[in-house]
Amino acid sequence: MIRKVWPLVAAAVSLGIDAYVLAGVLPQIAGSLSTTAGAIGLGVTAFTAAYAVAGTTLSRRATRGSTRRGLLLALGLFNAANLITALAPDLPVFLGSRVLSGMGAGILTAVATAAAAGLASEGQRGRAMSMVTFGLSAGTVAGVPVGMLVGEQLGWRWTMGLVVLVGVVSMAALAVRGGEIPPVPDEPGSGVSAVASWQVLSGIALAFLSGVTSLGLYTYLLPMAADSGLRAWGFALIWVWGIGGVAGSVLVGKRIDTIGAGRMLPALATALLASFAVVAFTPWPAAWLAATLVWGAAGWAGVPALQDALTRTRPEATTTIVAFQMAAMYLGSAAGSALGTALLGAGTPAGELPIWAAAAQVGAVALAVAVGAAGRRAATARTARARSRRVRPC
């Protein structure tokens, strides 16, 4: 199964790098384009907004006729846009390229996840979906620091060149695979019905809130550590969070297939809450390292767990549901970062931000319990319907 999915994982790696790498080279880009870091920061907003809109409106259209073709078109748009970013002569071209890159990324994430699920057997569905998340987390963990190092040594345009290189490699892998990727199931109608259920709407809300707490708070990990007297541990904490994310996204897949996503979701949300509490109230490096490891693992593991919980009983709607879920997560990340900036601007010490995140995470735990319970009820009902269809009257 992994052999079949790895080209999709490679594509996800390039997305993971692109989504976060610009934050590390904003001053360089601003100086190169003769503008401010704030103006360049709009590129992150443009990427996120385009990701959300394109992922939820264009993903199903992209796969009509051929899943492979849809993936190649999305990757082609993503790579071309990042090449334009690397060569951008001014701010308008830069911002326009970030919109196009976000569009390609939004379509690619949803289609790649649905394709991975389609390539796997029923007993390996969770593992397949978690491999795409592994690509995203690995790109963030390993690619972003490497990209920042390249930017420091060679310039930010070479950083974007690295993203393009990874994207081209994954595009070549998909092209070589030929027709091995099966069609992605497509639910009838506009797709709105796929997200109209209470469980899916709750899951989308959970994805948004998790983006606010986990990814949003991660933006301020270094100032939080400094405010708690752990400035010297900042680099180690960044890497530990990333290692946890990669490990969590790899290991959770088998647990989803054996234990069930409905049971995994509340446990992961609770672990995330506990990690925020430790970071908020303990000043010890060992406690921070352990909590940050759990934070990264639970945050990233929750992504495929939620995908499986929302789509296992409605596989024909996987593309649409994943598109809305990932859009909500990235929008939540942007909202969490903005809320953190507002709190710091209002005089809140950076060390108190985990308390705010923990308060919001209480709501995420409640949503995780509700989504998991609804998923188990839906699975039971589906099994009962299948049994009733097999029983034929004499």
TrEMBL record:
What Gene Ontology terms describe what this protein does at the molecular function level? transmembrane transporter activity
Task: Look up and give the membrane topology term.
Answer: Multi-pass membrane protein
For this UniProt record, the keywords arranged alphabetically read as follows:
Cell membrane, Membrane, Transmembrane, Transmembrane helix
Q: Does the keyword Transmembrane apply?
A: yes
Q: Where in the cell is it found?
A: Cell membrane
Q: Where is the Major facilitator superfamily (MFS) profile domain?
A: 4-375
Organism domain of life? Bacteria
Full protein name? MFS transporter
Lineage, top ranks:
Bacteria, Bacillati, Actinomycetota, Actinomycetes, Kitasatosporales
